[in-house]
Design goal:
The protein is an alpha+beta fold. It contains nine helices and 21 strands.
Length: 481
């Protein structure tokens, strides 16, 4: 018996066409009523197709509604609080404030994030602004977030001088959702990351200001620094490409490059290159052991560094020049002595001027060479604590004309100088007043006649006391002649 439509029944197409014409339906209405809602008399496959289409439409509707709700949730204060709570754990902080997170596609933007450190944190406070990262939509449902690149526009960190010994964040108890996976969909609309499992390829910081030290003897900073950081199996690697470093009196060292390798408890500093002043260069390397008493051991190799860049402003008015040498930083931010810097330097060139002693000698001997003494070479051995200097030995040679030696200590706030100076002059240059010279320059050593005198005065009036005595003695001598 041949197959085909029953002679007494219309085909589905005929029935559907007659029904459409009767109700004057558009093309969309034809689709809805022909597929999603087939009219009576439609064949079985069309009913199945309609039911399947209705199911798909319902799923798409629910998914769209869920996506809309989830998108609003990810930008809500509630999710920002969840995000901040996770940051607290990874930073081992007492508190983290994150007001909001803005999403644009896969990119997240955080205008500002602030953290207050705990007793065992490496920091007192952190403020980061302009934070951006990307994470695909589907990856947000995983507890283990991987962020390829995190960028931070501005970063402010105040480091803690020491840390109390207590369980670190890396050994903290398991996250709640790690032990109760069925709870994952009960909070956060299915998005609840565990930042103990957070990973990333790199962090890029455009401008960072990092400060440390709680007193004059330990204060230091690294400002306007830019760097990239990566984390590999609890080992931090940082590459710093700019920034200005200061510690105690050692100021305004402009970093060009520095590699930092940190694996608890030791920070290694490698391949540091910096400039200071107009032509000075500095190479640095060393280590810092963290903990209750952070202890740096850093070596600075100086080449043609201007004295002006190292001295306090008051002293820099008296002496200028360039030095080579090696400085060593040690001590601890959490000890009474603070950070210490010791060094042996060689003075390459320079000028000593504006000393009362030189003005007086120039007037007494009628010799203008005394007013400005040009350094041909010299050495200095010193140690420092905070902004205080202890020059245990210094010697400056001014060609064949004169020499200056001594030992002194200088301290803030007025940078007064206490110690002993010795000033030696070629005997031929004192011949105009031989009798007076024998009274004042009463020691002969190594081809020079020397006068030795104590100093205990502010740097602005250095040698003034002895100069007054010298001028008075010259007047008495002249009166007796």
């Amino acid at each position: 018996m041949p197959h085909g439509p029953h002679p007494d029944k219309d085909t589905f197409s005929e029935a559907h066409e007659r029904w459409v014409q009767k109700h004057h339906l558009s093309r969309w209405d034809r689709f809805v009523h022909g597929v999603l809602l087939p009219p009576p008399g439609a064949s079985g496959p069309n009913w199945i197709l309609g039911a399947l289409a209705r199911a798909i439409a319902l799923i798409v509707l629910i998914a769209g509604l869920y996506s809309l709700i989830l998108k609003r949730h990810l930008g809500s204060p509630a999710f920002a609080e969840t995000f901040a709570a996770e940051c607290e754990k990874i930073l081992n902080a007492d508190s983290v404030i994150c007001p909001s997170i803005t999403w644009k596609g896969d990119e997240a933007f955080i205008a500002a994030l602030e953290a207050t450190g705990s007793d065992s944190s490496f920091f007192k406070s952190i403020r980061a602004t302009g934070i951006r990262f990307e994470i695909p939509w589907t990856a947000r449902f995983s507890q283990k977030w991987h962020l390829p690149t995190i960028t931070i526009r501005d970063l402010e960190i105040e480091l803690r001088s020491g840390t109390a010994t207590r369980q670190s964040a890396s050994h903290a108890p398991p996250h709640y959702f790690s032990s109760n996976p069925n709870a994952l969909l009960l909070a956060g609309f299915g998005v609840s990351p565990d930042f103990h499992q957070l990973s990333f390829d790199e962090i890029i910081v455009a401008a960072a200001n990092i400060r440390w030290g709680h007193n004059q003897a330990s204060k230091g900073s690294l400002v306007d620094a830019s760097f990239k950081a990566s984390l590999n199996d609890k080992r931090w690697l940082l590459n710093c490409s700019s920034g200005t470093f200061s510690q105690n009196w050692l100021r305004n060292i402009r970093l060009k490059s520095l590699e930092i390798d940190y694996q608890h408890p030791t920070i290694l500093l490698k391949k540091g290159q910096a400039t200071i002043g107009e032509n000075g260069t500095i190479s640095l390397e060393g280590s810092v052991v963290t903990g209750d008493f952070p202890s740096p051991e850093i070596t600075f190799d100086l080449t043609k560094v201007p004295l002006k860049a190292l001295l306090n402003p008051q002293t820099a008015t008296l002496i200028s020049g360039e030095i080579d040498g090696v400085l060593k930083m040690a001590g601890s931010m959490n000890k009474q002595k603070g950070i210490t810097i010791d060094g042996d330097v060689q003075v390459l060139n320079g000028v000593v001027r504006d000393l009362d002693l030189l003005a007086t000698l120039s007037a007494v001997y009628a010799d203008s060479r005394f007013r400005r003494l040009f350094i041909s070479n010299g050495i200095a051995k010193f140690s420092s604590q905070g902004n205080a200097f202890d020059f245990s030995d210094f010697s400056l040679t001014f060609g064949s004309f004169a020499e200056m030696k001594g030992r002194f200590v200088t301290k803030p706030p007025d940078y007064s100088i206490t110690g002993n100076f010795a000033f030696g002059v070629n005997p031929q240059d004192l011949a105009s007043l031989p009798e007076f010279s024998r009274l004042v320059f009463d020691k002969h050593q190594m081809g020079k006649d020397w006068t030795v005198f104590p100093v205990n005065e502010p740097v602005g009036s250095l040698t003034k006391n002895f100069s007054n005595q010298l001028a008075g003695a010259a007047r008495e001598f002249e009166a007796k002649r």
